[in-house]
Amino acid sequence: MLRGSDRARRGSLLLPASAGSVWVALASTVVVFAGLALIVVNSSGWPKVKEAFFNPAEFRAYFGTIGHAFVLNIKIFLVAEVVILILALFLAVLRQLPGPVFFPIRLLAIGYTDLFRGIPTILLVLLFGFGIPALHLSYVTINPVYLGAAALIVIYTAYVSEVYRAGIESVHPSQEAAARSLGLTRGQAMRAVILPQAVRRVIPPLLNDFIGLQKDTALISVLGPVEALQRANIGSASEFNYTPYVVAAFFFVLITVPQARLTDWLIARDRKRQMAGGQV
C-alpha cells in the first residue's frame, strides 16, 4: 500500500499531465472549429448565405417580435412540464402494481407507453389539432394551443413514465422489504421509501426529456398559433430572407443550453456521490 507521502507525490505528478491533456484537447478543438469557419467563410457561396441567413438588419428587426412570440413557447413548456411530471409518475406506479388482479391495468399502461412512444410527435400534433375539432364536440376545446399542448403532454408522458419506471426499478428490493418489516403497507413503502429515492436518481434524464419538450413546442406552429417558429415563418415569407429562423433558433438555444449544463452538473454530482459512497 502507498503511504500518505507517496500518494501525494503520485497525485502531484498526475495533475500536470491531466491539465496538459485538457489544454491539448481545448487547443485542438479551437483549431478544428477555426478551420471549419475559414472553409465556410472563404467558400464562393458564403456572401449569399450570409445575406440570406445572417443579415444583421433583419436580425435586429425581428429580434423583439420573435422574442415576444417565444413567450408562448415558454408558457406551453412550463404548463406541459408540470402535467407530465404528475401523469408520468402515476403511469409508472400503475405499471408496478403487483398481482394478477392488476394485470389489466398494467397492460393498459404498457399499451399506452408503447403506442405513444411509437408515434412521431408532429404526427400526433396534427392528429390532435385537426382531428379533434372535426368531431364537433361541444365540451372539448378547439383552441390549437391547447390541442397542441395536449399532444405534447400525451407523447412525453409516455417517455417520462419510462424514466420514472427505471428509477423505481433501480431501488433495491431490500428497501421495500425493510419498510414492510416496519409495518408499512406496500403503498406506504412506495410513497415514503421507494419514490423519493427513485425520483432523486432520475432527475438528470428527466431534464434531458424536458430539453426535448422545450424544442418540440415549436411543432405547434403547424396548427397556426403564432409562437417563435410561426413568427419566423411569417417574417421569412414577408422579407424573402431566412434570418428570422436564425433568430428563433437563437432563443431556443438560449434556454436549452443552460438546461443542458445543469443536467451535466447534476450527473457529475451524482457520480461523485456514488464514488464517495463506494469508498466508505
CATH domain class name of the largest domain: Mainly Alpha
Helix content: over 70%
Distance between the termini: 17 Å
Using the 3D structure, state the CATH architecture of the largest domain: Orthogonal Bundle
> What's the gyration radius in Å?
25 Å
How many discrete domains?
A: 2
- By CATH, the topology of the largest domain is MetI-like fold
Helix run count: 11
What does this structure look like?
The chain has 2 domains: 42 residues; 224 residues, MetI-like (MetI-like fold, Orthogonal Bundle). About 2% of the residues have low confidence. It has 11 helices and no strands. Helices cover 82% and strands 0% of the residues. It is an all-alpha fold.
How would you concisely characterize the structure shown here?
This protein is mainly α. Helix content is 82%, strand content 0%.
Which key features would you list for this structure?
280 residues, MetI-like fold, 2 domains, flat
Record the SSE blueprint.
Blueprint (H helix, E strand, L loop, with lengths): L3 H38 L4 H8 L2 H40 L7 H16 L2 H14 L9 H27 L2 H9 L4 H16 L1 H14 L11 H12 L3 H37 L1
Helix pairs in contact: 3-4, 3-6, 3-10, 3-11, 4-6, 5-6, 6-8, 6-9, 7-8, 9-11, 10-11
